[in-house]
Design a protein that fits this description.
Elements: E1 5-12, E2 24-25, H1 28-31, E3 39-46, H2 53-68, E4 77-82, E5 89-95, E6 101-108, H3 113-117, E7 146-153, E8 156-163, H4 170-184, E9 210-211, E10 227-233, H5 235-249, H6 256-270, H7 283-288, H8 290-305, H9 308-320, E11 333-336, E12 354-357, E13 366-371, E14 378-384, H10 386-393, H11 396-399
Parallel strand pairs: 6-7, 11-13
Antiparallel strand pairs: 1-6, 2-5, 3-8, 3-12, 4-5, 5-9, 7-8, 10-14, 13-14
Keywords: Transferase
GO molecular function, one term: transferase activity
Pfam families: Transferase
Length: 404
């Protein structure tokens, strides 16, 4: 089995402190994620030609610090204040104290780029290419809110990112990575400054106390064995799925992404021996009524839950009974987005050739979406029970939509 060796690990502060940032109270959306795991995303590169590895690591570490200048919360920690009115609840916020983000240099010299990019199933070594494994979001009171691990491979390197999901979402993480690649290429400043104002939703940034979290009282979860695989959907095949869904439904409302999600959901249901739905749709409807009706259900669900009334209502309801989410047993979960700029991240030695995610928040039925390397395509990283994955691989209707 391939082994990983950690060469060095340190906390990297902001390079230049110009002014202090005020306390940033976590919003209801943030607070509900405190008991869950972090975001873990990583990008794979071929080894740069004629470049000294030591120089590359030093350059990345220095440019990492300079990028934190523009994202000071990521060098901070989660702060806590006990609620004076109730000794069983606590306020959680981001303390921009410049305690530092984690920078790790590691080596997996027996692992090649192709071992990761060409394997049918994602190899176990990939999970070790990310820092801060096993840390939950509420542990940001003492653990870094952002960590990066640069792992040297036999013929390339992997940049693995772990970010506290109560502080940063996927859009913001890729914004940071995009910005770091600019600073690494010699930009004096980032092309798109982050925005720290949190007043999009009225009263959404209020300080909200939640039940105090005691790590010792949390159940220790040991998940079942899982397999992970990337499935590639070309621009052409996605167009066919969208056309089929709208034709079956006599509609023009179903988007490309909604058609893909309907296809994934139906395929997964065919390959499993059980069925659970929170969409108000039965197994018979899902499989017999076709792609179009499933696509319409997804379209209606998204419309219903993204209206202003629904968003504002969620905030008000959650504040009345603030209960953080726990890792559940949902059998179909969609994560990430195919709109993130993954392949534009050139740190000065070429663009990445592949993207992978870590084990944070992984469970059976999770589908993580990424843009494909070629424009218009979508890659789906499926995480499934081994028997479901093998059934999916043998499912003719599903596999005929997969591009090489």
């Amino acid at each position: 089995m391939a082994k990983l060796k950690v060469i060095s690990s340190s906390l990297v502060p902001i390079a230049t402190i110009t002014k202090s940032m005020p306390r940033m109270d976590l919003t209801p959306w943030d607070l509900q994620l405190l008991l869950l795991g972090p975001i873990q995303k990583g990008i794979l590169f071929h080894k740069p030609e004629l470049e000294n590895t030591t120089n590359i690591i030093d350059h990345l570490k220095n440019s990492f610090s300079r990028t934190l200048d523009f994202f000071p919360p990521l060098a901070g920690r989660i702060g806590t204040v006990s609620n004076n009115n109730d000794d069983k609840t606590t306020f959680y916020f981001v303390d921009c104290n410049n305690a530092g983000a984690e920078f790790t240099h590691a080596s997996a010299s027996t692992v090649s780029v192709s071992d990761i990019s060409e394997a049918k199933y994602i190899p176990e070594i990939v999970s070790s290419l990310f820092p801060l494994n096993g840390v939950l979001n509420f542990e940001g009171v003492s653990k870094p809110l952002l960590g990066v691990q640069i792992t040297e491979l036999a013929d390339g390197f992997f940049m693995g990112f772990t970010a506290n999901h109560a502080v940063i979402d996927g859009t913001s993480l890729w914004h940071f990575i995009n910005s770091w690649s600019e600073i690494s290429r010699g930009f004096g400043k980032v092309s798109k400054n982050p925005v720290f104002e949190r007043d999009l939703v009225p009263n959404g940034n209020r300080a909200t106390p939640i039940p105090t979290i005691d790590k010792n009282l949390l159940p220790k979860l040991v998940g079942p064995p899982l397999l992970e695989r990337f499935y590639h959907f070309s621009k052409e095949n996605l167009a066919k799925l969208k056309a089929k869904a709208n034709s079956e439904a006599s509609s023009d409302k179903i988007s490309t992404l909604q058609a893909l999600l309907a296809h994934l959901w139906r395929s997964l249901t065919r390959c499993r021996q059980f069925f659970v739905s929170s969409f108000g749709i039965s197994e018979t409807e899902l499989l017999q009524d076709g792609l179009g009706q499933t696509g319409l259900k997804i379209n209606a669900f998204i419309t219903q839950h993204t209206s202003k009334e629904a968003i504002f209502g969620f905030v008000e309801d959650w504040v009345k009974n603030p209960t953080p989410l726990r890792l559940g047993t949902s059998n179909f979960i969609i994560s990430s987005s195919p709109r993130y700029d993954v392949y534009g991240n050139d740190f000065g030695w070429g663009k990445p050739i592949a993207v992978r995610s870590g084990r944070g928040q992984k469970r059976d039925g999770k589908m993580t979406l990424f843009p494909a390397a070629e424009p218009g395509g979508i890659d789906v990283e499926a995480c499934l029970a081994p028997e479901t994955m093998r059934a999916l691989d043998d499912d003719v209707e599903f596999m005929e939509t997969i591009a090489p």
